[in-house]
UniProtKB/TrEMBL annotation:
Alphabetical GO biological process terms: endocytosis; intracellular protein localization; retrograde transport, endosome to Golgi
Protein name: HEAT repeat-containing protein 5B-like
Pfam families: HEAT_HEATR5A
Lineage: Eukaryota, Metazoa, Chordata, Craniata, Vertebrata
GO cellular-component term (any): Golgi apparatus
Signal peptide (UniProt feature, chain positions): none
Length: 177
């Protein structure tokens, strides 16, 4: 429209470049505190929701415009959300630019740490071994290339969570046998 000009594009890009990492961390905090938990309060909220809002919600979850609305289960939605956070984090941590502020790296690592505080995320990362190995590989490279102790401490914290998730998953499998 009339309000979106080349000047506003540059302003939006600058704003996004400066705020994406804290937003990623905020989303991870939100998911950890509410998004992965299925409780009666969420079911009661959904039951109290007007039908028009339920339809809008199911349409928003639909990935392809023009197709009939399909609803996803909560585990599928949470898996998609988790993959989005992991994808953005891994993509950024694979090749952070030298001019990137250290705060973006720490926010991204804090988002991963917060995400892996959730039992749901730990189970998923332990079940999907390729995802865990990829994340560990990226974290190893980050540990070798970034000097600030704060970054290295956060990297080791995330690595500990991944290893603990794998250990818990293996212990659970042993207990079921």
């Amino acid at each position: 429209g009339a309000f979106y000009t080349p000047e506003t594009i540059d302003t939006a890009r600058l704003h996004y470049r400066n705020s994406w990492a804290p937003i990623l961390h905020a989303v991870a905090l939100w998911l950890n505190s509410t998004g992965f938990n299925v409780s009666e309060s969420t079911e009661e909220t959904a039951a109290a929701m007007p039908s028009s809002q339920k339809r809008a919600t199911s349409i928003m979850l639909n990935q392809t415009p023009g197709t009939p609305p399909t609803t996803k289960s909560l585990p599928e939605i949470n898996k998609d959300r988790m993959h989005l956070i992991l994808g953005v984090s891994i993509q950024f941590l694979c090749s952070p630019r030298p001019e990137e502020p250290v705060e973006h790296v720490t926010s991204c690592l804090q988002a991963l740490h917060t995400l892996l505080d959730s039992p749901c995320a730990r189970i998923h990362i332990a079940e999907d071994q390729l995802l865990g190995v990829e994340l560990l590989s990226v974290l190893h490279r980050l540990l070798l290339t970034w000097d600030p102790p704060s970054v290295q401490l956060l990297v080791t914290g995330v690595v500990q969570q991944i290893v603990r998730a794998a250990q818990d998953y293996l212990q659970e499998k042993r207990n079921t046998l």
